[in-house]
Design a protein that fits this description.
This protein is mainly alpha-helical. It is about 60% helix and about 5% strand. The chain starts with a helix and ends in an 8-residue tail after the last strand.
Length: about 600
């Protein structure tokens, strides 16, 4: 047993290292920009900014300063990832300072999280797979479009580690199905950490626990379930205690770890304790199962009754009247559209679901096995449906497909007698997972190559500090997409950005851009408090929506026809940025 454990540890270490290196190797276009101080997306800058601002006050912050026209803006991310970045940066800070150390550590999270993903996918696959096929899970995982969309060198975020957390949790759930105490204990801890990283993992953690509940129906594993419930509750409660929302531990936030999820963990623990108590009572099997189902459903129903808006998911975060306007600017919350996106983002999950349903049918005489397969199918269906509505979830169905790839290959090898037929089916599996999803996109790119559109500038914010020096400490109206980079690189204050707790700032900025030009600054612009306007050359007049008026501030700047009350302060022709001072502002000089 010890030799096998050591062998497994070496195997997963190798898979971790190989996945980390491969994730960097498949991101060739972003490597050089990262070394020239250019990250891939705005969220990466915002995370580094939040960490750096917090460290100046001696703690990890929940808010970002200099957004929302100067008001502190809550950024909803858990600080668990922040703490990991700080731990990586601490040894470097002594030599290069915290600013550069945090940048290096943040960039390093991408290969580290990719390594964790590769190891976790293989870990989830191992109980049902031959050892020689375990390498397939990280390979498929790294190359599937849904994962590639987030696992890019130069991205500093949680989207990949959340998938790894789901895979580790479900892997422990599978190992705990016989009631073994150590897997049950780790299953609870893994689920708590997953929700701590982000509550987006919560439905899949609960489905793993539901599968263990089905095992309890077949055998008395209540002692292990009680341990799972206790470790899940303690981990989640601990996370809520040391990483509470802005405002304290009693503030309920649905988009990060908070009292909502501590109470969920308490409900799971109560249900698990009830199952353990029932195992000790002399009663018929039918009564035991009936009471167990009632206890589990009642616990969950009470929690859901306490927090009904949680059932709305992303729709419960923002007032309905603002949702369409706000989400219209965010690419990651758009639905899947067209055949190309369908095959890239949804087909791998659907392929995996068909296989899982087939396995459920084949094992229909084994209630526990078929039930577990159906629970897995429900998880795949949920993740695929969420992706169809919000592409931000695209990595989860891709992760299910990748974890099942070794299982499919093992099943083919064990069930197909003729080696030629088995080999053909194994090749077909790789084709349908790694080639077929890309074919429509490649075909469209070949038949309809996109022509480059004149942009008038790169809109890169690298080195923009000199242009914005006159606006230091002042409120600047600019496009929300540039806001995180500008906050990170300069000392200006911006009107608003694309974060759900900053919806008011975003709406103020949008109203100011869309307001018709008048002989003097519009009331909407005055409401932002902006003393400067920063604009980057673009041909996208309808950036703010299809009904942007031709005489709006945004449209006039697109056409290089600023209103007379905007005075040009400076510009960067190569980058395309132009800085204007608003007439009548406190900083204006005759």
């Amino acid at each position: 047993m010890q030799s096998r454990y050591m062998s497994n540890r070496r195997l997963y270490a190798m898979l971790f290292l190989a996945s980390a290196l491969a994730a960097v190797a498949v991101s060739p276009t972003t490597i050089l920009p990262v070394f020239h101080d250019r990250l891939v997306d705005g969220d990466s800058y915002m995370r580094l900014l939040r960490i750096e601002q917090g460290l100046k006050h001696g703690y990890l912050a929940n808010v970002v300063q200099r957004d929302d026209s100067g008001a502190p803006m809550v950024v909803e991310w858990s600080r668990l990832v922040d703490a990991f970045i700080v731990a990586l940066a601490a040894p470097l800070a002594f030599f290069v300072g915290w600013h550069h150390a945090l940048y290096i550590a943040g960039v390093a999270t991408q290969p580290i999280f990719a390594g964790a993903l590769g190891a976790s996918l293989s870990f989830a696959s191992e109980p049902l797979s031959k050892r020689e096929f375990l390498w397939v899970a990280p390979v498929v995982g790294i190359l599937l479009p849904g994962v590639r969309g987030f696992d890019v060198f130069g991205v500093i975020h949680y989207h990949i580690i959340l998938l790894a957390a789901i895979a580790f949790t479900l892997g422990w759930c599978f190992r705990a199905r016989n009631g073994a105490l150590r897997p049950m204990f780790y299953c609870g801890i893994a689920g708590g950490l997953a929700i701590w990283i982000t509550p987006e993992t919560m439905p899949f953690v609960l489905l793993g626990y539901v599968a263990l509940g089905l095992s309890w129906l077949q055998r008395p594993i209540g002692a292990g379930m009680a341990l799972l419930g206790a470790s899940f509750f303690l981990t989640t409660a601990f996370g809520t205690l040391i990483d509470p929302p802005h405002g304290g531990i009693w503030v309920a936030e649905s988009d990060r770890i908070s009292i909502i999820y501590a109470e969920l963990a308490l409900a799971v623990a109560a249900a698990c304790l009830a199952l353990a108590w029932l195992d000790k009572k002399p009663m018929s099997g039918v009564r035991r199962k009936a009471f167990g189902l009632v206890a589990a459903l009642l616990s969950f129903a009470i929690w859901l009754a306490c927090w009904p808006r949680i059932s709305l998911g992303p729709f419960g975060l923002i007032p309905h009247s603002d949702m369409r306007v706000f989400y219209g600017q965010m690419a990651e919350v758009q639905p899947v559209t067209g055949a190309t996106e369908f095959f890239l983002l949804l087909f791998p999950g659907l392929f995996a679901m068909v296989y899982v349903l087939l396995r459920a049918w084949r094992s229909r005489r084994d209630v526990e096995a078929s039930g577990a397969w159906l629970v897995l199918a429900a998880g795949i269906a949920l993740s695929t449906g969420l992706t169809a509505r919000f592409v931000i979830f695209q990595q989860i169905p891709a992760g299910f497909a990748a974890a099942l790839a070794p299982v499919i290959l093992t099943d083919i090898t064990d069930s197909v007698v003729r080696e030629a037929a088995a080999a053909s089916l194994r090749v077909s599996t790789f084709f349908f997972l790694l080639v077929f999803p890309y074919l429509p996109a490649l075909t469209m790119a070949y038949l309809h190559p996109q022509k480059s559109v004149p942009h008038g500038g790169s809109c890169s914010t690298v080195g923009i500090g000199r242009l914005l020096a006159p606006a230091s400490g002042k409120i600047v109206l600019t496009a929300v997409n540039y806001a995180p980079q500008l906050l990170y690189r300069t000392k200006i204050i911006i009107v608003g950005s694309l974060y759900q707790h900053g919806i008011k700032g975003y709406l103020r900025a949008r109203a100011a851009w869309r307001a018709p030009a008048t002989p003097s600054p519009s009331p909407q612009l005055r409401a932002t408090g902006a003393e400067f306007v920063l604009f980057c050359n673009t041909t996208a007049r309808e950036y703010l929506g299809p009904h942007t008026a031709k005489n709006s501030l945004w449209a006039l700047l697109v056409e290089h026809r600023p209103p007379h009350w905007l005075h040009l302060v400076g510009e960067e022709p190569k980058q395309g940025f132009r800085l204007y001072r608003v007439a009548g502002s406190s900083d204006e000089h005759p």
